[in-house]
Amino acid sequence: MPAARSSASRRTVLRGAAVAPVAGLGLAACSAPGGGASADATPTAPVDLGAESEVTKGGAKLYREHNVVVSRSADGALKAYSTICTHAGCPINKLQGTTLVCPCHGSEFDAVTGKVARSPATEPLNELPVKAANGRLVAGPGA
């Protein structure tokens, strides 16, 4: 009888060992590409994004290298948001019109309001300060 018990115990341990890597893959799928970007990947100080004229009225521009999107309403008001997805922390790298599309799970956000347009994300993007100064756009804390 003891042999049957130890055999069952070994099977249980082996099954557990086989499942552990698969569970790890599930966690990896929800992390950001390139080592897990987080909300910390957004500007922590004012960042010069470029010419103010790059963002047209009623449009938006994605600044991938700074994880920022800037939009301009029809009346000329500027808004900026972090482009780190609030679902899994992935950097958003695609802008279609004024819709941001996350590459990890397909969440979509309105670049003008920061609101979720398509799940799985449920929280809006984090708004960032933005201003135009001397024909340049500056975003981030202290802007």
Map the helices and strands.
Blueprint: H1 2-29, E1 47-51, E2 60-63, E3 68-72, E4 78-82, E5 94-96, E6 99-101, E7 108-110, E8 116-118, E9 127-128, E10 130-133, E11 136-139
Antiparallel strand pairs: 1-11, 2-3, 3-4, 4-9, 5-6, 6-7, 7-8, 10-11
Arrangement of strands in the largest sheet: 2-3-4-9
Spatial gap, N to C terminus: 74 Å
Mean pLDDT across every amino acid position = 81
Rg: 22 Å
Poorly predicted residue ranges:
12-40
Largest sheet: 4 strands, antiparallel
What's the count of strands?
11
Order of helices and strands: HEEEEEEEEEEE
Number of discrete helical segments: 1
Strand coverage percent? 25-35%
Q: What proportion of the residues is helical, as a percent range?
A: 10-25%
SS-based class: alpha+beta
Provide a concise account of the structure shown:
With 143 residues, this protein is α+β, with helices and mostly antiparallel strands. It contains 1 helix and 11 strands; from the N terminus they run H-E-E-E-E-E-E-E-E-E-E-E.
Structural account:
- This protein is 20% helix and 29% strand.
- With 143 residues, the protein is of the alpha+beta class.
- A hairpin with a 4-residue loop joins strand 2 and strand 3.
- The longest helix has 28 residues.
- The protein is globular.
- It starts with a helix and ends with a strand.
